[in-house]
Amino acid sequence: MRFTVNLLGVEDDPAVWASEREREGWHALSVADHVFMPHRAYPHVWVSATAMAMATTEVTISTAFVNNLLRTPVEVAQAALQLQQVSDGRFELGLGAGWADEEITGSGLRYPPPRERAGMFAESAKIIRTLMHEGACRFSGDYYDINVPMVGPTSESPPLLVGSVGGPRTIREVTPHLDRVELKAQSAATKGGSLDLEVMAGVPDEHLIELIEQVRSVRPDIEMSIFMMLSVGDDPVTTQVGDAMRSGGGLFRRFFGAPGHVAEGLAWLESLGISSVSISAMTPNSLTALAPYVL
Q1: Residues 6 or more apart in contact with residue 159 via CB below 8 angstroms
Q2: pLDDT tens per residue, the chain (295 residues)?
Q3: Nearest CA-CA partner of 99 in 231, 28, 190, 20
Q4: Range of 111's domain?
């Protein structure tokens, strides 16, 4: 199984963090594309990804996930192509619809309703793929009117495009443009524009199985990964969130607690046909604790 680990905190130097994770043996390193959440500031996605690429030699560099509500598809394609060059072909572009209401409105932008966000996401995925593969794009849709005669640096091997999908419409309309699907099984917990841990705790195993089946109905052979929040250890945060997840009885109960317990949960994902996991660790020591059990 392939594991991507996600840089979340501004307190971490991206270059130092990336070097440490590469030494631990993780397969890919990514950076979240947020500005802030109620209790956390985030590093800048493009600056951090570039620093990570320059500080490493073999590990894949990615984004988890470029926020479609913060960035235009033209900027995203241009940055992705530049990062593919800077990283010597080690970059993968992760793209998401955007979900955090307070972050978007707090940044002075409009937070669209769910149907509009999904439609914008689908059009962006098509535009970005065209720009990365053809170096130009003329597109007129419901949300974007694009006329870009050239963008670069062009590449014979453009970055892979990975999209975060969690509902029927995004699965149906975004998946055709992707090289890999990233399942977001906790989408129901972010529909209100913030993360609801109680809702997340109740997401059943069957929901993930249904998502897999929906993706297979659109692209039978496409590779699937999953975005997973987890925490390893016996610290207060891990214990509190783990207790909440277990009380809900949902699929996320597997991903909080001792490293062996979490490793078993990750193996369960692989048994469902998921080939890679994108990990966002809720506590700072989780990745180092988990590494010997999964790498």
Answers
A1: 80, 81, 83, 84, 91, 92, 93, 132
A2: 999 999 998 999 999 999 999 999 999 999 999 999 888 899 999 999 999 999 999 999 999 999 999 999 999 999 999 999 999 999 999 999 998 999 999 999 999 999 999 999 999 999 999 999 999 999 999 999 999 999 999 889 999 999 999 999 999 999 999 999 999 998 887 876 677 889 999 999 999 999 999 999 999 999 999 999 999 999 999 999 999 999 999 999 999 999 999 999 999 999 999 999 999 999 989 999 999 999 9
A3: 190
A4: 2-294
Q: Look at the pTM and tell me if it is higher than 0.85.
A: yes
The one-character DSSP state at 188 is G
| β-strand pairing of 137-140 with 66-67 | unpaired
Note whether 4 and 27 are within 8 A (CB): yes
DSSP state of 203: -
Two tokens at 89? 């072909």
Number of folded domains that form the chain: 1
- CATH number of the domain within which 202 lies: 3.20.20.30
Q: Which phi and psi angles does 223 have, rounded to 5°?
A: -70, 145
What phi and psi values does residue 147 have, to the nearest 5 degrees?
-140, 90
For 241, residues 6+ apart whose C-beta sits below 8 A from its C-beta are 197, 231, 256, 282
